[in-house]
Design a protein that fits this description.
Strand order of the largest sheet: 1-2-3
Low-confidence stretches: none
Largest sheet: 3 strands, antiparallel
Helix content: 55-70%
Shape: globular
Number of strands: 3
Distance between the termini: 49 Å
Structural class: mainly alpha
């Protein structure tokens, strides 16, 4: 990786997780275009490591993990929300933390309320429209979440 780009990417985790992620990152062509780089890292690195990867200080999110969590919530209720999904919702989707995950679930206790949140987040915008364009990994995830929430029949 070029030295000027190394400052943009941070890896956190155990020593083994960091080494594993760095080996994967070396194989990815990081161009300095954050929009493209975030998608590459999301597809080629994040699914294959437990390390947390940040690009310019912001998490690159694991799409498959979040979608798996959304499906579990849709099937079993909001109480089944993972910590990772909670972090994504309050860091990337236009929501405050509500003190903790339980506070967030109390505010959005049903799938219908979760759907309403994605249509109109806490800043009065559709979640997809509230995410900045450079955060391409989060945009891709939210498009998939919308499919899960609005195209599947929820009992």
């Amino acid at each position: 990786m070029r030295e000027e780009l190394e400052n943009k990417i941070s890896v956190y985790g155990s020593r083994g997780e960091i080494e594993e992620a760095e080996k994967l990152l070396v194989k990815v062509h990081i161009s300095g275009n954050e929009y493209d780089d975030r998608l590459k890292i999301q597809q080629k690195v994040v699914p294959f490591t437990k390390a947390s990867i940040l690009y310019d200080g912001n998490t690159v999110w694991n799409k498959e993990k979040i979608l798996k969590d959304i499906r579990r919530v849709v099937k079993n209720g909001m109480e089944k929300m993972s910590d990772y999904l909670y972090e994504f919702l309050h860091l990337s989707c236009g929501s405050i933390a509500h003190y903790n995950k339980q506070g967030w679930i109390c505010t959005y206790p049903t799938i219908q309320r979760l759907r309403a949140f994605f249509k109109n987040n806490e800043f009065g915008k559709r979640v997809l429209d509230d995410i900045p364009s450079w955060k391409s990994d989060a945009k891709v995830i939210v498009m998939e979440i919308e499919k899960e929430l609005f195209l599947t029949k929820i009992i």
